[in-house]
Amino acid sequence: MKKILGFMSFIIMTSILFACSENSEKWDEIQEKGTIVAGTSGTLIAASTYDDEENLTGYDVEVMREVAKRLDLDVKFEILGIDSMLPAIESGRIDVAVNDIEVTDKRKKQFAFSEPYKYSYTTMVVRKDDNSGIESLEDLEGKRAGGGATTIFSQIAEHFGAEVVTYGNAPNEAYLRDVHNGNTDVIVNDYFLSKFGVGAFPDFDIHLHPDLKFHPTKQAVVMDKDAQKLQQEINKVIAEMREDGTLTELATQFYQEDASQKPEEDIEEIEGLDL
Predict the structure, then answer these.
(1) pLDDT tens digits along 195-222
(2) CA 112, CA 108: separation in Å to the nearest integer?
(3) Is the pTM of this model over 0.70?
């Protein structure tokens, strides 16, 4: 009996040690290289974009730069379409993704997420003159909604019966112009990104829907499901950045509002969405 118990203890300890080794493997690899590779799009105004001097910047980008700095790492940004980012984590092409990516229950089954660095909610970009004929979520039925093929926002539009018109890694202007000229009717998207997108093109006949606020969200750094040591290290740094005001400072710089804090108002949840 003692031999059996001893053998079982050996198996359990071996399994624990193997799991610990596996969970720290990504972190060890990154430390050895001295560089963390982060996927981002470069096409999201205020989140991941290029400034007038063609430098990559934005809230998500600068949060990731500060995270890497505090982990004593360099950061290399890999420009990818949103459809490619999560597969690139799975394949090992990138270590993390930072592109206003929402934390959802379904995604948490496949990937690990840091603590949120941004909180927001969902709204719509519509035409000014008639709100594109949309006064409720149910009015999305039969409308043409511009969006990425795999985004949560496209899933919401489809859930309410819209036809999703998909784009590649296109700039905000392409999405917004299509609503303006009637090629599409609506963009379902993040409040902060939509606000700055609309503000960047004042000549377009578009605005944020004045009445519809729904589906509260939180955004975080995404990484491989087994990269638990990396997740822990990033979480430590994000907690420090929240505590010392860095997240607030960066959010206010890029959004003119503190997107690092949860919205004070109650935002409508959407029932029946499998996200």
Answers:
(1) 989 999 999 999 999 999 999 999 999 9
(2) 6
(3) yes
